[in-house]
Amidohydrolase family protein (Actinomadura bangladeshensis), 301 residues
Amino acid sequence: MTGPSGSGAGAITNVLRGAVDIHCHSGPSPFPRRFDHADAAADGERLEMRAILVKSHHHSTVMDLLAMGDRLTKSSTKVFGGIALNSQVGGINPYAVAMSLRMGGKAVWFPTLSSGRHIDCHPEGGGFPTATVEVPTARVEVLGDDGELVPEALEVLDLIAESGAMLSGGHLPPETIAQLFEEGGRRGITRKVINHPNFVIGAEPEQCLDLVRGGAYVEHEVGMYDPEGYRKWDPRDLLTWIETIGPEHTVLASDLGQANRPLPVDAFIRVGSALLDLGLSESALRQITCVNPAYLLGLDD
């Protein structure tokens, strides 16, 4: 891979112009947030971002966006919503999914905070902010006693296929995500993404490559590699992931919006710059920040 032809803020801004962030945690939320969805769009304008997908662990964000319509129409950065199938929306709830998608939703995340994998990793909520209100919660099962996907999950997959929306494996274990994606593919789902495989999910690169062979994309979060912000790993680790999986099936997103954490655009710039300095090509960086996420949101359909 060849490095960037230039350096500095101007060069990285040009490379990232038109980026799409498919994992933004703006508010409202019972978790403390740095900004709301309209402010997220305003932040995105600094990079002339094409679009943002906003996510809540607790409710469909589609209705948020409809209520903020007068503010969002002023932004050149489009904002889309979706639904995460945690206990707060009734778990694997086809009715909630149908409403979210038919009101304009672009994504369905299978259980995140309510998945057994997440609960096992964070039995007392470690690593996540304290909610501003008491949040009723329960574990949500995706598989039945027979090890097969529950009937409601099959209904949800059909709804995703019908709408052309993006399917996320949420915080499920990699074996269950593989099962979900395989069934989703059989039912006509073409947009599938595994989020932060090395955080909570615990997917090894070879497991991710198996998913990629089935058409899935692997999403990494700039918020977890930001050299000056909320950092879990070195950008060199991210480059290794990109080289292993290939930029054709890798996506960079922010996973930001939380109080006391960096602004998404700042993290994109810092991590993008770090990757270019490490030798990632400008074309590969655009592939994983602009081209692939635009496809997953169906922006060019």
The chain has a mean pLDDT of 94. Residues 18-297 form a domain with the TIM Barrel fold (CATH 3.20.20.140). The chain has one domain: 18-297.
